[in-house]
Description:
Mean pLDDT: 94
Low-confidence stretches: none
Shape: globular
Largest sheet: 5 strands, parallel
CATH class: Alpha Beta
Oligomer: single chain
Strand order of the largest sheet: 3-2-1-4-5
Structural class: alpha/beta
Amino acid sequence: MNVAIDTSVLVALLVPNDQWHEQAVKLWDTTKAQGYIPVYLDCVTAETISVIVRRLEEKGLSKEVASAIRRWEEHVPTSAISWILPDVPRLYPEIIALIRSSSGALNFNDALIALACRERGIEAIASFDRDFDQVGWLRRLCRPEDLEG
């Protein structure tokens, strides 16, 4: 089964001192062991790289940006990225409707991710963001136990 990987999990995987790092590694190892196939969306790619670079800059560690980008490229090669941003014009009314129905709990990217998952038959997302719990067609995985049973 395919599982979309959200920014919160990717950042935690790639940043060893992230508060969620240990949980992300356990979740990642469990998904791989159980045969889940990770799906990396382009909007998540953009957000993940932006968050990592911003955190490094905020900590005065700009010199580490190149190695962080290298780790990203090793983890997610360009060929593994699913390009969904071209779908935005077509999905825009549904994105806005989903944001509205969630009373703003879902932001634009998260609504786009949820709709892209629905269209592609992806039933699960690895994420630490609880806003995805409001999406009826998407099961949020945040702990290894979420994959068992």
